[in-house]
Write a structure and sequence with these properties.
This protein has 482 residues and is α+β, with helices and mostly antiparallel strands. The protein folds into 2 domains: 5-319, no CATH class; 321-413, no CATH class. The protein is built from 16 helices and 12 strands. Helix 11 (322-331) packs across helix 12 (341-353).
C-alpha cells in the first residue's frame, strides 16, 4: 500500500479551456494498495509486510477481537448499483472466477476492483509523527479492520464502514521499507512527473505540493456519520502517531443522479472486466489481473513477493464549475433542426463527453438520448467506433475524435489492453444551489465547492494513468498517434 501525492490545476478534457474553466483543480496521489500474503511478527520493522494482513488472518483476528465492536456487519449496503454500470459479481460468482484464475480475493483490498460504487467515502491523508507507535497500532489494531474484496461483494459480509489504507514512497521509507517496487513514477514522487502531465506546481494545493503525505486511509459506508465514527476511533487508536494533512469527503449524488458526476453524466460504465473477478459484458475490455494487480498474470515487472495483489492508486481532486459548464453549452449549442436550444446544448455536451447524461453512447445514439439503451449493460458498452460504410480514420458523425471517452478509452482506434485502469472515484461537494443556477456562476464559498475525487488503480502508473493523461487526453494529435 503506497501513495504518491500532489495537487494540480489542469484540464482533463481537452475542450475544458473553452468551458470557462469548468474544470479547475486536481489533487493527485499515487498509491500501492496491498494485502501481504503472510503476516510477519508484530514487532517487525518492515511495515510493508505489516501494512495489511492477509485476509484469512484478518478474518481470524476479527472473529476473536474487534477493536471497535460497533463496526460489525449491519446488513445495509454501502455500495450503489446504478443500472447503467456493469453488475458486480456475486460472492459465489467471484469465488468461482477467482479459483479458475488462481486469484485470491481475500488478499486484495476492497476498493481496488469494485469501481465507482461507494455511497460515501472519505480520503484521509496523514503524516506519521511517531513511527514506533504507528507501526505498533497499525499491526495490532488497524489491520484487523481492513476490508478485502471478498468482504465487499455481499451485504452480509460488508462492515458498517469499510477501511483501506495506502502508503507513499515517503511513508514506506520512513517505516524502513527499502524494496524496489518497479515503478519509477511512484518512487520518484509527484514533483518529478508534474511537467510531463502539463501541470504547473505553483498552482497545486499547498497540502500536496509540500510532499509530506505518508499515507491515506480510505473509509466508505452508507452515511458520513458512520465514516466519521470510524475515523475518530482510528485516530484515537493511533495515539497521536499521525497528523492530518488533508481530507476529501465524497458522496454519491442523490436520487436519480446516483452514479452521475456533477456535470450530470453517468460515470463508471466502461471499467474493464478483470479476469478472475468479473464476467465481461458485450463490448467491455477484458484485462488479465496483472494489468491492475502487482505480481499477477499480465504484470511484466519484477516485484517483491510481498507486493503481490497490491495496486498503485492515483488520486486527483477535480473541482467542477457546473453553472459555467451549463452556460457554455447553451452559449455554444449547435443548430440542429427540429431541436430546442436545450436539446442542442445537451447534444454538445454529449459530443464532448462521448455519452449522453443517461450514459447512452453517442456512437450508438448520435443525435438523441436513449435512456433504455443507457440502462442496459448488455448494450451500452457494445461499440468500438467502427460502422459499416464509414472510415474510422475520418468518421466523426457518430463520435468525435476529441470526445472524452474516446480519448481515454480508444477501443478500435488503438490497441490499449496494457493502458487500462480501474476507476473508483466519487463526487464530492453539495448540489448546485438556486443562486448559482440563477447567476450562472459557481459560489466562492469553500463549503459549496464540488467536483470529482478521481481514483484509478493500475499495476504500472506509466502505462496506466500517466499514459492515458499524457499520450491521449493531453495530446491534440491523439487520433493519429501511434
Amino acid at each position: 500500500m503506497l501513495i504518491r501525492a500532489a495537487t494540480y490545476r489542469l484540464h482533463v478534457f481537452d475542450w475544458s479551456q473553452k468551458g470557462f474553466g469548468a474544470i479547475k483543480r486536481y489533487n493527485q496521489v499515487y498509491n500501492l494498495l496491498k494485502k501481504p500474503e503472510h503476516p510477519p511478527p508484530l514487532g517487525s520493522m518492515k511495515l510493508a509486510l505489516l501494512s495489511l494482513l492477509v485476509a484469512f488472518v484478518l478474518q481470524c483476528v476479527q472473529a476473536r477481537f474487534r477493536p471497535w465492536g460497533w463496526n460489525h456487519h449491519h446488513y445495509r449496503p454501502i455500495l450503489i448499483n446504478p443500472s447503467a454500470q456493469p453488475d458486480l459479481p456475486s460472492a459465489q460468482q467471484a469465488s468461482n472466477s477467482a479459483a479458475s484464475a488462481g486469484l485470491n480475493l481475500t488478499n486484495i483490498q476492497g476498493d481496488v476492483l469494485i469501481g465507482m460504487r461507494k455511497i460515501t467515502e472519505t480520503f484521509f491523508f496523514f503524516k506519521i509523527t511517531k513511527i514506533r507507535t504507528f507501526k505498533s497500532q497499525l499491526g495490532s489494531t488497524i489491520l484487523p479492520m481492513i476490508t478485502s474484496t471478498d468482504d465487499m461483494l455481499s451485504v452480509t459480509t460488508q462492515p458498517t464502514t469499510a477501511l483501506n489504507v495506502a502508503f507513499s514512497q515517503r511513508g514506506l521509507t520512513a517505516l524502513g521499507v527499502r524494496d524496489n517496487l518497479g515503478d519509477s513514477l511512484f518512487a520518484n514522487g509527484q514533483l518529478s512527473g508534474a511537467s510531463d502531465l502539463g501541470d504547473k506546481t505553483s498552482q497545486w494545493v499547498p497540502q500536496f505540493s509540500a510532499s509530506n503525505i505518508d499515507g491515506v486511509f480510505l473509509l466508505a459506508s452508507d452515511s458520513i456519520e458512520n465514516v466519521n465514527i470510524l475515523l475518530f476511533q482510528l485516530q484515537a487508536s493511533l495515539q497521536g502517531s499521525i497528523s492530518e494533512v488533508y481530507r476529501v469527503q465524497g458522496q454519491a449524488r442523490p436520487g436519480d443522479q446516483q452514479g452521475h458526476e456533477h456535470f450530470g453524466f453517468m460515470d463508471g460504465i466502461s471499467n474493464p472486466a478483470v479476469t478472475g473477478f468479473s464476467t465481461p459484458h458485450p463490448g467491455q475490455t477484458v484485462v488479465p489481473p496483472g494489468i491492475i494487480l502487482l505480481g499477477e498474470d499480465g504484470d511484466s515487472k519484477q516485484r517483491p513477493s510481498w507486493a503481490r495483489d497490491g495496486s498503485f492508486l492515483v488520486f486527483r481532486q477535480l473541482q467542477q464549475r457546473v453553472p459555467e459548464f451549463n452556460s457554455f453549452l447553451l452559449n455554444n449549442a449547435p443548430s440542429q433542426p427540429n431541436m430546442t436550444l436545450q436539446q442542442n446544448a445537451d447534444l454538445l455536451g454529449a459530443r464532448m463527453m462521448g455519452r449522453w447524461k443517461s450514459g447512452a453512447p453517442i456512437d450508438l445514439a448520435p443525435l438523441a438520448d436513449d435512456p433504455v439503451l443507457a440502462a442496459d449493460p448488455q448494450r451500452n458498452n457494445n461499440f468500438d467506433y467502427t460502422h459499416p460504410n464509414f472510415d474510422i480514420n475520418t468518421d466523426q458523425s457518430h463520435c468525435p475524435f476529441s470526445a472524452h471517452i474516446r480519448k481515454t478509452n480508444p477501443r478500435a482506434d488503438q490497441s490499449a489492453i496494457s493502458n487500462q485502469i480501474i476507476r473508483a472515484g466519487i463526487p464530492y461537494g453539495p448540489e448546485v444551489t438556486s443562486d448559482e443556477t440563477a447567476s450562472g456562476t459557481s459560489s466562492s464559498t469553500p463549503s459549496l465547492e464540488r467536483g470529482l475525487a478521481f481514483v484509478s488503480y493500475q499495476s504500472s502508473i506509466s502505462s496506466g494513468f500517466a499514459f492515458i493523461q499524457q499520450s491521449w487526453a493531453n495530446n491534440p494529435s491523439f487520433h493519429i498517434c501511434e
